[in-house]
Each structure stands twice: as structure tokens, then as C-alpha cells.
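Aim 2 progress update. The chain analyzed this quarter is reproduced below.
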Amino acid sequence: MDNTIILYLIKVSIAIALFYGVYMICLRTDTFLRLRRSYFLFAIAFSLIFPTFNIEIPIEDQAPAQIPTFWLSDFYLTPEMQEQTQLSPANLQNIILISICIISAFCVVKFLIQLLSIIKLRSGCESEKMQKYRIVKMKNNQLSPFSFFNWIFVNTEDSDTHRLKEIIAHEQAHVRQYHSIDNMLAELLCAFFWWNPFAWLIRKEIKINLEYLADEEVLNQGYNSKEYQYILLQVSNKNSGISLINNFNVSQLKKRIAMMNKKRSSILASLKYLLIVPIGAILLLGNAVQASPDLIKMASDELFDRPQDQVDQLPSFPGGIDEMNKFIRDNLRYPVTAQEAGIQGQILVSFIVKSTGEISNISVIEKTDPALDKEAVRVIKSMPKWIPAKLDGKDVDASYAIPIIFKLSGSKAVGQTKDNSIVVVGYGSKIEIAELKSGSSSNKKNPFVTVEQMPNFPGGEVEMQRYIRENLKYPETAQKEEIQGRVTLRFIVADDGEIQNVVVVRGIDPSCDKEAVRVIENMPKWIPGKQNGIAVPVYFNIPIQFRLKNDTATSKPTTEKK
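Predicted C-alpha cells:
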């Protein structure tokens, strides 16, 4: 999953912890209950929203870090890779996020069950409409009185009219001040951030503060303080067990009584709540990014010769290289006009990944044809925000470039290109596409080289990498003779997902070639490719690199479409 999600969760958690810490140190001893409520609501809302905002801080005389061109990588196999399969950081992140989501889903289900139990209790009891609220008459004397929005639940078996009147006055305060909103917000916060102890602590403080507010309003109406506190003691052994309601009885009874008897704080002490301004500023500055005022356009020769150590961490597409490959392949189209004119060639597209993650300054360094250039720029421009480069722990602007080869089906290699450039192959005319739409059986049987939706290995590229690593064996004869190199395989993913016609396009040794073919032929059914919503057979290429231990190069598996 995306690193952005983990980063968001971390930022929200830090904000909640900071707001709670300031409250405990500076605010919890005063009597400004309404200000305190506003502080809690602001803390939750700001914590959830601020990670989505980026503030650019201009830095003069800073040129963007220049980065070598990105090239698609091969799959490398060493004899040692056969013995062990390591869990990648990306997979570990996926496991953590999936675990968080599962438990959060359980907490949300619990929340919904509690909500339904309140509705069920409401529908099973008689009620009486009074002004802007409704009295729900419970028959179970074991439940403490409580309120939920404009419903006030009371025990009809209570014969003490005066006590019942004070209880209703307390719950009316909850209803008038919409305390159920605070309760539900606190419960949902804990449901989605159940692993953060500060979420539970701030929830606890929100609940007790709501009771302080209701108690304060009851006493302001003229009720006797000692009699009211005595009523609290009488119902202290009853609880509904529903956390999202405003319960007349809460566990921190001593704190409520102490707050009712406490001397009111000085007005000047309320200035402490202005601390939300520096807290918010600190969090926003922590989320700020650097932006260079002058973006320098790179020349083609600088792009390839520039060292990588000018930034500590390169910019990356959300989800990594595999997701970027997939995005480009799914969105890039060979212009029909260029196909009909027989135009092909390599395009080198450079751009800036800003410190905010946005793509800017897109330019075509190596041009081929206006239609091809325009299509390549369109796809790069439509990319989502990247994870920016880092230098000395700070987000910085960085340059990036991607080579794309447009190649017509059946033609020879175009120019002197780098291995593993992104290749887009022209696959048919307007007539052929029209026939496919009408359901022509002939076109369904003729394999395509690229389609609107390319075929996929079940589970995606990560699962395909795992499958190859677990099943591919380095032939002993090849190891003894120190044979290594890349085997390029071509096959057809049929319209039913079957692997067919596996051939070696470029081999290195009969034993290695045979082993690579064996692994591809034994693959499970793929998710077939689609053109205009119809499953069609599609050609697919996979390069596999056999490399001995004494060769230092390493990389990740990927696929090429040709």
C-alpha cells in the first residue's frame, strides 16, 4: 500500500498526542468548560485535516537536485535467491495497514451495533414528546438515565419526582448543547486510531468534560448543589454499557463533584487557550515543504551524467516502480495518426518532482513526432502526486526523466536505445478496432501487442515476482560453467487467461532457456487483457536475468510489453 497512508496516520497521531499533552499540562485544572470543549473539537478536526495541506517555504539559490534517468529493471536470479525469500518492506507495510484496517472495521461494526441497540431500545419503549426533545420511558431499573441527541431515556419506576426532574434537567443540557456529536466523534476517532493511546485518553477527557458542562447548567438553573450530588451517588452503580451516549452516571464521579465545588478560574487564565495558535503553527511547519523559486531545465547530457548522491532519497511514484510502470502502461496510447504514417522512435521526457510531490516543468528532451511527444507529455502530466526527494531530511525539488519508445509491430529495434525503456507498440487500425467492437471472431483470435487493459498475473506484479523467485532454479551446469545473462521470453495470454506459445526471443544457454520457459508455462491462469471491454489474446514479454553471486548488480523483476 501507499506510504502516504502510513505518513498520514503518523502525522495525525503526533498531532493528537501534542494537543493532549498541552491540555494535560496547561488546561485541565481550569473551569472554562466551553472553551475546553472547543479545544477538543478543534484538536480532533485539525489533527485529521492538517496532513493534507502543504505549505511551500521559498528557499533562494537552491537548484533542484538532478537525477539520472529511470529505467525499467530486469528480474535477476542468483543461486542464493533460490534458498531464501525475504519479506520486502512494501509487503510488511501492507500487512501492517491491512491489520489496522481489519481491527478498525471491527471497531466500526461495534459502533454500529451500539447505535442499533439504542434505536432498538427507543422503538421498544413508550415515549412522550416534550418541547424539542422526547422522553423515552425505560422499564429496566438497572439502566442509568442517558440521552442520545434529542432522546432522553429515564426509568419510569423511579418514584422520586424531584430526583427525576433533576435527572431530566441534566440530560436536557446534553440535548441542548448537542453533546452526542462530541461523543460520536470521539468514538469514531478511537475506532480508526485504536492503536493510538492518546486517542483513548482524549476521548476520556471529552466525556468527562461533557458531564461537567451538564452539571454546570443544572446548578445554574437553581438546583441545590448538595442534593444534586447526592442523586449522582444514588445512581453511581448503574450503567448502560453503551459508550457513545451521554450517560447520567460516569465512573469519574469524584472529579464531577470536585468540579462543581471548585472556584471559578480567572478570566485572564482563559488566554491559555490561545496556545492552539502556536500548536497549529508548529504542526503546519512540520508539514511544510521547501520550494525552489527557480527550476532549472536540464540538458540531455546532464541527465545521464549527473551523480545520484545529490539527494539522500530519490523521488518515487506512489506505490513504487511497479505502480509507475502499471500507470504508464495502462494510460499511454499509440496515436493512430502516427501508426498510419509509420512514425516510430524514442522520446525522452523530463520533469520536476516538486517538494510538494506535484509534477511540473514537463519537457521533451528527445523528440520524435508532435503526436507522440504530446501523448507522452499527457500521460506524465496526469500522474498523481509523487513522494518527493529528500535532502538532509527535508523535502526538495528533484529532476526526473523517463524514456519511452514508440515502436510499430513487426519493425526492428529503433535506434540505439537503453535496455528496458518503456515501449509502446502500434497494434492496429481504426478498422480493426471497429470490427472488435462489433464482435468479429477473427480479431478476437489474433493476438494484440497492446490493449486498453493489459493482462495481469493473479495478485499483480508482486505476486508474479514471488512466483518466479520460488519456482525458478539456476541450472547447475550453467553455474559450473559460469554462464549468466538475460533470457527474454515472449508468450500469449489467451482470452481465457491461459499461457500459450512460450518462445525464447533472446537466449543465453539451452539449460537457462529451458528453465525460464518451464516456469512461464507452469504459471497459473492470468487475468486476460481487454480491448473495448472484450477479453482478447495479448502478447507479453518477460526478461529474466540469470546472474552469479560475484556479479554485484541487483534489481527487481518487471515486465515489458512489446
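Residues 77 and 182 are 57 Å apart (CA to CA). The first strand starts at residue 56 and ends at 58. These observations will guide the mutagenesis experiments scheduled for the next reporting period.
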